[in-house]
Every structure is written in structure tokens, then in C-alpha cells.
Amino acid sequence: MVKEDFCVFLDAGHGSLDKNGNYVTAPSKQFEHAKGTFHKGKWFFEGVWNRVLTNRVAAKLNNLGIANIIVSHEYVDISLEYRVDMANWYHKNFKNGLYISNHSNAGGGSARGFEVYTTPGKTASDEVAEMHWNNVKDLLGNRIAYRPDGSDSDNDREANFYVLKRTAMPAILVEHLFFDNFEDASLLMDDEIVERFAEAQVRTVIQYMKK
Description:
Blueprint: E1 6-12, E2 30-32, E3 43-45, H1 46-63, E4 68-70, H2 80-91, E5 96-105, E6 115-118, H3 124-140, E7 157-158, H4 162-165, E8 171-178, H5 182-188, H6 191-210
Parallel strand pairs: 1-4, 1-5, 5-8, 6-7
Antiparallel strand pairs: 2-3, 6-8
């Protein structure tokens, strides 16, 4: 699978737990559930989960010999500008690339489901998003809920997120369920679910590389 002119840039959203066990990101990126066990008792930390998934995707790509660079820090919530600048700088060394930003969502506790974002309008990222949507559906089926846009002919939602509009390569931002919903959060703690989400990203990368 080695392709010397292609690189995947992986971004684990927000910050994580520092070496003293402190969660170094915005309060909105964590949620204390009334029951269950998550990252710290009943607390679910989005940034921790984002890194679990991103690191697994990177390991899978490494096993296949596919170049990849994680542009997020191990735990520091470095700026979006820094992440994008890093990706854009290294991208100059490759003919083609792909940027994937990994997140889980929050919506007040009642919302559930999987989403993929691209910038507004028709771009090269739309095709990547549709590939990824289909790969997730193939691997997770009805085990999770889905939140398609529904306003046009494809499933991706559109927003002017910094990491989508400032990257020099096609980019998608993936919201993996809602961490403040107990059912979704419980699914995110299931190692098989994480594995299937990671495998879906690798399949998306391979499909895009072939094009």
C-alpha cells in the first residue's frame, strides 16, 4: 500500500489529560453522566476519546505503510491554526493528501448519531465524506444512529470549520456520536465500536488513494 506521494494528516480534536491527570481543554468537551464508568468515573472526556481513535487509525496506516502525521499534541489543546499550518507545511512534500479531524459531539443529552462535515458547496472533500459515510454504515450498520444533512444529494453536513476551510488538501471533520448522551457514550467506550470506526477511516483513505 506504500504510496510515496500521499500523506494522511490526523487531528485528534481538543486537548486531553496531562501528565498529572488534569483535563486541559474547554469544560464543554467533558460530561459527567449520572451512571456508568467512562474515562474518570462517570466523566467522559472527548479529547481522550478522540486520541484513542486517532492513534488507532495511525497504527493501522503504519501497518499498511501509508504515510501519516498526527498534527494534534499528545495532550495540549494546541490552536487550530497551528494544526493546519503543520499539515499544510508537510503537505508541500507530497502530491496528494487528506486531512481528518476526529471528534465526538455534544447536544444537550438527547441528540444521538454520527456526522461528517465538509465546507459549504461542492468540493473534493464531499467525495471523501461520502466514501467515509458509506464505510461507516458498512461496518457499523444499525448499531449506531446517523445524522445526514438531507438538504442536498449527499450525506455530509456543511460548516466553515477552520480545519476544513484552511487546509491545503481535502478535509473532513467527523463527529462520532454524542458523548453527553449515555447510550452513545457507552457505545464509544466499546472497543469493537472504536475498532470499526478506525477501520472505516482506513478504508476511506485507501479508496481515496486509489482515485
